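Box 3.1 — From sequence to structure: HAD-IIIC family phosphatase
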Amino acid sequence: MTTQIVSEQIVDAVKERPRPEEKKAAEKKSSSIKCVVWDLDNTLWEGVLLEDSKVTLRQDVADVIRTLDERGILHSIASRNDHAAAMAKLKEFGLDEYFLYPQINWGNKSASVAAIAKSINIGLDTIAFVDDQPFERDEVAFEHAVVRCIDAADAAGIASLPAMNPRFITEDSKVRRKMYLADIERKNVEDSHEGSPEAFLASLEMVFDISAAREEDLKRAEELTVRTNQLNATGYTYSYEELDAFRKSPDHDLLVASLDDKYGTYGKIGLALVERTSDVWTLKLLLMSCRVMSRGVGTVLLNAILQRAKAAGVKLRAEFVPTDRNRTMYVTYKFAGFREIEKRGTISVLENDLSRGPDFPPYMKVTVDV
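Predicted structure (token representation):
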């Protein structure tokens, strides 16, 4: 494919792209769901557990849970119940392993939903809450207007909702729950670790790999742009076709990052798009999965790009578009030595003079294959 054709494809792909603030209202209505939070009594099972220990499982709900899990959509619980009895019943039904950070207590459901979002580190607008009681749904909706509340009577149809159907089912999405369970195991080990945080991170034996995106990476790359909100420097989302055009372009680098440690893989957790000219490289997109921020890897991909730009003898710039969530990325750029040199509408153009010598954390192995 010629340079001209690829360039034309890229221009056509992005010329109509709306700015993040223009899409905000629409996104709140159509955000993809990352986690479904379930009530238990008369929702996941028929009956009230404290009144009847022989409650019966709603098989249609169990089927929905398994189906969504295969798509990479997580599950949790917000239920007014006895924790031990409820978890025992879930284990009896063979469903206990599907629920992350279950909130089974006597508090408000809205507080439980907030605790789940914080533990998983996702936005409330990516959560759906299912309950048979209108009062409970109203209480959650009042406190968290962006949470999608669903009547338990409609639970059997949840898997057919557009927000529950990601465009691609990637290798990462198929094992997403298992990756979160590994995260919980790591956290438990970390909490019991005696020593410095750096010593704990070193004990994980982390390997951070950076490579040029391959065709088989594009589905996950698109998923990353769609799912990542807090750590996306521009807030842009890109389709598979757009990313493929960038991958083939001689004027762009599309980089993906993955992370592994002794407990398993975190999967593909970072993405960067660099536009190259003879004297200036511009970071058009930089994002990292929220799941890995506690691992101290937030600047590894950025530092690798800084090193490559310095070695190439070019200026390095970055575009930043503020959203209501991504201030962390602006702080990351500032700490890395970027300063604003231009403002184009909502876009801040930042530049790094490359006077610093960025390095990688000593507690991990970094491999770069670009």
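Summary of the box: The longest helix spans residues 176-192.
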